[in-house]
Specification:
Keywords: ATP-binding, DNA damage, DNA repair, Helicase, Hydrolase, Nucleotide-binding, Nucleus, Transcription, Transcription regulation
Number of strands: 13
Main location: nucleus
Order of helices and strands: HEEEHEEEHHEHEEEHEHEHHHHHEH
Strand order of the largest sheet: 3-2-1-4-5-6
Organism: Eimeria necatrix
EC number: 3.6.4.12
Shape: elongated
Largest sheet: 6 strands, mixed
CATH architecture of one domain: Beta Barrel
Helix content: 25-40%
Subcellular location: Nucleus
CATH class of one domain: Mainly Beta
């Protein structure tokens, strides 16, 4: 829920009306005496800036007659469908009648041009496009329920068309978010599928949550941190969490009490307004277990010289970091490059490349044009690599076994965010959540 709130409400369909709004000044329809002749007419439309006379066809005459449009009405006409919508009646014609119906609404005369062009934006998923193009009934296939199997040829054609729309500027791909809770329950085949899916260009951002330490991967005899294969775990940024401390729990309870007092005051004010008497409203306090994301206690050491035996490897890592920063349009300072190079040598190159993305987001929040040593240290403390996560699990398991006779405490929870190529949305959401709670 917290991640969903941080990402913001998703609007699956946004429709901006592509209609023209204007005021009818005069309307005249010629009704022929013969039965076979078509009706013709003229209509004068105006805004505050211009006025134009239009010739009417038979279909538009029928639409105007159906809506009961008369001189002085404010209407909108959709040129694509020919639909006429009656918005209201102008204030200038408010005195034409002594009495009007309850549904009559008076509005101001529209402003601007008579004919306006507006964009219509539709937010759809690639799966919905695949379903529409894989069935004979088209758009109605979305409401059938059982979509069935979609051929690979259809998906390839849709991907090619969407790529063409992106190049033309007609479409924009927004990576989705896939949240997998209790990820340790997946077997090795599911992890293989996820590993393959994350390599595609339109891959979503995958957020995985688990509360397991070093455990066996389902379907194998191998043990791994969090029950996730190491090749997939190496693609992730790991966020360690721990229960609230006693001081923080007191602050949470105080905030809840303040909110309850405010609600009680609002209820009392409403009762005083309604009955003139003050009523007492009591609220029950409820305690909830919370967990907060805490930054890792491991700090990044200062920039040190690379040993002579790994000079060549360090130079190659530094080149790759520079190329990745140039590809993502991120300006790195010299000290930040050296620190990322050292992180890549000690941990993994993929982890160092992930830090470039989240460090650039931290720099943008600070309104900085370049990523410095401070930003790299901050994201290094927030997001763990595989080695530090394993050490954390070993220490926590040993401490829990030694204190088995103590009272039960809230168990830690570990979430791993695996980002698609070039997408740092999950890292941004996790980073914002960390900063707010820290």
């Amino acid at each position: 829920m917290a991640i969903a709130k941080e990402l913001g409400p998703d609007t699956p369909f946004t429709h901006l009306s592509g209609s023209e709004i204007f005021k009818v000044v005069e309307i005249e329809i010629d009704q022929p005496t013969g039965s076979g002749a078509a009706r013709t007419g003229r209509m004068s439309l105006k805004t505050t800036e211009m006025e134009t006379l239009y010739d009417l066809g038979s279909k538009l005459i029928d639409a105007l007659t159906k809506e009961g449009v008369t001189a002085g009405d404010v209407i909108s006409i959709d040129k694509a469908s020919g639909k006429v919508s009656k918005i209201g009646r102008g204030f200038a014609r408010a005195k034409d009648f002594d009495a009007v119906g309850p549904t009559t609404r008076f509005v101001q005369c529209p402003e601007g041009e008579l004919q306006k062009r507006k964009e219509v934006v539709h937010t759809v998923t690639l799966h919905e496009i695949d379903v529409i193009n894989s069935r004979a009934q088209g758009f109605l296939a979305l409401f059938a329920g059982d979509t069935g199997e979609i051929k690979g040829e259809v998906r390839e054609q849709i991907d090619a068309k969407v790529a063409e729309w992106r190049e033309e500027g007609k479409a924009e791909i927004i990576p989705g978010v896939l949240f997998i809770d209790e990820v340790h329950m997946l077997d090795i085949e599911c992890f293989s599928f996820l590993n393959r899916a994350l390599e595609s260009e339109a891959a979503p951002v995958v957020v995985m949550a688990t509360n397991r330490g070093i455990t066996t991967i389902r379907g194998t005899d191998y043990k791994s941190p969090h029950g996730v294969p190491l090749d997939l775990l190496d693609r992730t940024l790991i966020i360690a969490t721990e229960p609230y401390s006693e001081h923080e729990m007191m602050k949470v309870q105080q905030q809840q009490q303040q909110q309850q007092q405010q609600q009680q005051q609002q209820q009392q004010q409403q009762q005083q307004r309604r009955s003139g008497r003050s009523g007492r409203s009591s609220g029950s306090s409820s305690s909830s277990r919370c967990s907060r994301s805490s930054s890792s206690s491991a700090g990044v050491a200062g920039v040190a010289g690379v040993a002579a035996a790994v000079v060549a490897a360090g130079f190659r890592v530094l080149q790759i970091i520079e190329l990745r920063a140039e590809e993502e349009d991120v300006e790195l300072e010299a000290e930040a490059q050296q620190l990322l190079c050292r992180v890549g040598l000690e941990s993994s190159l993929r982890y160092a490349l992930h830090l470039i993305t989240v460090a650039s987001l931290v720099a943008k929040r600070k309104k900085k044009t370049s990523v410095g040593l401070e930003e790299v240290r901050k994201v290094y403390s927030l997001f763990l690599d595989v080695k530090r996560s394993t050490q954390y699990l070993v220490v926590s398991s040993s401490s829990s076994s030694s204190s088995s006779s103590s009272s039960s405490s809230g168990s830690g929870r570990c979430s791993a965010a695996a980002a698609a190529t070039g997408a740092g949305v999950a890292a941004a959401a996790g980073l914002e959540q960390q900063q707010q709670q820290v």
